[in-house]
Amino acid sequence: MVLIVGATGLVGSEVCGKLARRGEKVRALVRATSSKEKIAALQSSGVELCVGDLKDLDSIAAACRGVDAVISTASSTLSHQAGDSIESVDAAGQLNLVHTAKSCNVERFVFVSFRRAPAIACPLCDAKEAVEKAIATLNFTTIQASWFMEVWLSPSLGFDYANATARIYGPGTAPISWVSFRDVAEMCAVALRHPSAERTTIEFGGPEALSPLEVVARFERIGGRPFQLEHVPEPALRSQFQDATDSLQKSFAALMLGYLHGDAINMAPVAEKFAIKLSSVDDYARSVLARAATA
């Protein structure tokens, strides 16, 4: 039995479906307030549901009983409810999960983390690092994912492909290995039982490192429309980072600064070792532009 924590989230829901289709017995930790549609989707794929919360130790203990592995994709960054914060979920909540897994003799632990820019510390960075250290005594896999294209190349962060406008953080010249959340979910599913993934950290991105300006050029070519660009200068981002009083705001400002400095990964060895076909920015552009054209 595999426990998925963050099962109604972007990556976690994909992991549940992938593992269920592979014949794994899957238990999904969901909250009483989770989306009914997402819960119904989990149930329809044959996933066992367990109601709980990372902030509730008793519910975590119940979720961990009888499982041989945990995959945690949970975070308060993209969706959060009352009482959720980086401190309560990404830090204390995840550490609750790790300690409970150890006490329940769960040996295998797969954790989705992220790529951190050098010399830029933030609450989310600290939380992820603490969890990575805590799982080091287990048979762990840490997947350090690069910038999600479905998040950073989306209207919610100023990349409005439907209207051909894009917000660029900094000059937009540093290459990033933009990754699909679906590929991160596939890496989780593969890593779970793959010997080469045991007791290791996997730096994980897309098949091609492109600068934000190169991404815009790909969208312009595929969509046949020029984009209007809005550049957010580095001093403004640094001011936002320094002045932030909320841990989530400070962490997003740090991620924007990381975007500015780039994150290029040679993914060929990882893709070959784990036989994963990575989605490209071109794939993503064709998909979202086609969807926007029919909306």
Distinct helical segment count: 12
Helical content (DSSP H or I, runs of 4+): 40-55%
- Strand order, largest beta sheet: 3-2-1-4-5-6-9
Mean pLDDT: 95
Q: Quickly give the structural class.
A: alpha/beta
Rg over alpha carbons: 19 Å
Order of helices and strands: EHEHEHEHEHEHEEHEHEHHHH
Count of individual beta strands: 10
Amino-to-carboxy terminus distance: 40 Å
Taking the sheet with the most strands, its summary is: 7 strands, parallel
Please explain how this structure is put together.
The protein is built from twelve helices and ten strands. The protein has helices at about 10-20, 35-45, 55-65, 85-105, 125-135, 150, 180-195, 210-225, 235-245, 245-260, 270-275, 280-295; strands at about 1-5, 25-30, 50, 70, 110-115, 140-145, 160, 165-170, 200-205, 230. Strands 3-2-1-4-5-6-9 form a seven-stranded parallel beta sheet, sandwiched between helices. Strands 7-8-10 form a three-stranded mixed beta sheet. Helix 9 packs antiparallel against helix 10. The longest helix is centred in the first third of the chain and has 18 residues, at about 85-105. The chain is globular, with a radius of gyration of 19 Å. The mean pLDDT is about 95.
